[in-house]
Amino acid sequence: MSFKGLHFIRQWAKEHIYKARVLGQPQRSAPDLAEAFRKDARSAQVKLEEVEEEVGPLEKGIEKLMDGRPLNTPK
Fold first, then answer.
1. How far apart are CA 54 and CA 75, in angstroms?
2. Are the C-beta atoms of residues 29 and 62 closer than 8 Å to each other?
3. Which of 33, 50, 52, 69 could pair with 73 as two cysteines, CB 3.0-4.6 Å apart?
4. What is d(CA 22, CA 74) in angstroms, rounded to the nearest whole number?
5. For 17-69, how does the pLDDT look when each residue is reduced to its tens digit (9 = 90+)?
6. 27-53 burial by CB neighbour count: b if 16+ within 10 A, else e?
């Protein structure tokens, strides 16, 4: 994955997943977050194929982030 893609994922997760958790906000569902990620990735010109090659299906990767596990850690 490109540095741009990796940086985008980390920043996006920090803003949309970790920040909400720290602030005690209700967590959005993985499908909702995946749709928001796709939209934001298109705006940032990050290739979704590249992301999914690295993390697998986007919804599953987001579920792992929501569980607090790094993307490459098996459940």
1. 16
2. no
3. 69
4. 24
5. 888 877 887 888 889 999 999 999 999 999 999 888 888 899 988 888 888 75
6. ebebeebbeebeeebeeeebeeeebee
